[in-house]
């Protein structure tokens, strides 16, 4: 759970194992969808600009390289969250968060805290400043890389002489769906998260954004899937077909029950 007390942002591990390692691991694995989106953008770019490279996605060595890159991002986030935050020692911010958590959820948690205490004893916390800068760089880099690949793919779809009209329309449709899919985590995860960790440096409390960050993150997978269903006609038809089949089955079952009863 995340909690805010004044300008101090904290993550509490409300589970059997109340260790900072668990919180860092949880946050680290949240980076996986973003890494997969970048890989997907690379696939779309190669399918238009470098079709001969698509075969690399079937090779074990290249798959291992992609897995290594994704693992590197996970490990980086883990190390940042574990070593770049505070909470293992007693402090005014930690005591405030413990009290706020107990007041909000009716449970007192003493251990496993990860804190972003931007202003410790009314002084800028340099350790937290460096941590937040690194987090921002990683998030901006991910968005910038995905945006660059999307822009280049759009450009080559328009300028390519090798793509047929039908193939170009298909590639464009798939890319638009991917961009919409990528916009969801950017709006639902990155934006509230960055506001939450950045604004306290300017001594601006963000309780509304902070409180919305977890519900928005929770809604992200559902909205991500919903966008694909709405944008891809084949998915829409498949979903409608499933609904109609269920309705037909229910109607048939009702008729059989009615016949037996009569």
TrEMBL record:
Keyword Disulfide bond among UniProt keywords: no
Stored Pfam families: 7TM_GPCR_Str (PF10326)
InterPro entries reported for this sequence: 7TM_GPCR_serpentine_rcpt_Srj, 7TM_GPCR_serpentine_rcpt_Str
Transmembrane stretches, start-end: 24-43, 63-86, 128-154, 174-193, 213-235
Keywords for the protein's UniProt record, in alphabetical order: Membrane, Transmembrane, Transmembrane helix
Origin: domain of life: Eukaryota
PANTHER family: SERPENTINE RECEPTOR, CLASS J
Name listed for the protein in its UniProt record: G protein-coupled receptor
Organism per entry: Pristionchus entomophagus
Lineage, broadest ranks: Eukaryota, Metazoa, Ecdysozoa, Nematoda, Chromadorea
């Amino acid at each position: 759970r995340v909690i805010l007390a004044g300008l101090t942002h904290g993550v509490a591990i409300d589970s059997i194992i109340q260790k900072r390692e668990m919180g860092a691991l949880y946050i680290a694995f949240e980076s996986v969808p973003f890494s997969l989106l970048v890989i997907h953008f690379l696939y779309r770019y190669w399918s238009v600009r470098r079709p001969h490279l698509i075969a690399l996605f079937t090779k074990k060595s290249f798959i291992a390289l992609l897995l290594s890159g994704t693992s590197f991002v996970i490990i980086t986030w883990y190390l940042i969250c574990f070593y770049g935050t505070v909470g293992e020692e007693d402090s005014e911010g930690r005591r405030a968060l413990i009290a706020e958590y107990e007041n909000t959820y009716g449970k007192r948690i003493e251990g496993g805290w990860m804190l972003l205490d931007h202003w410790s004893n009314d002084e800028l916390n340099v350790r937290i400043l460096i941590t937040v800068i690194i987090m921002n760089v990683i998030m901006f880099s991910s968005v910038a890389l995905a945006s660059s690949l999307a822009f280049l793919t759009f450009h080559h779809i328009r300028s390519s002489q090798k793509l047929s009209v039908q193939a170009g329309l298909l590639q464009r449709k798939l890319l638009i769906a991917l961009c919409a899919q990528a916009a969801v985590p950017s709006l639902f995860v990155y934006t509230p998260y960055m506001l939450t960790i950045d604004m306290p440096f300017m001594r601006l409390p963000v309780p509304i954004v902070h409180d919305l960050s977890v519900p928005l993150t929770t809604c992200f997978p559902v909205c991500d899937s919903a966008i694909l269903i709405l944008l891809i006609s084949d998915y829409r038809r498949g979903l409608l077909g499933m609904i109609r089949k269920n309705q037909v089955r229910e109607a048939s079952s009702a008729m059989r029950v009615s016949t037996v009863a009569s």
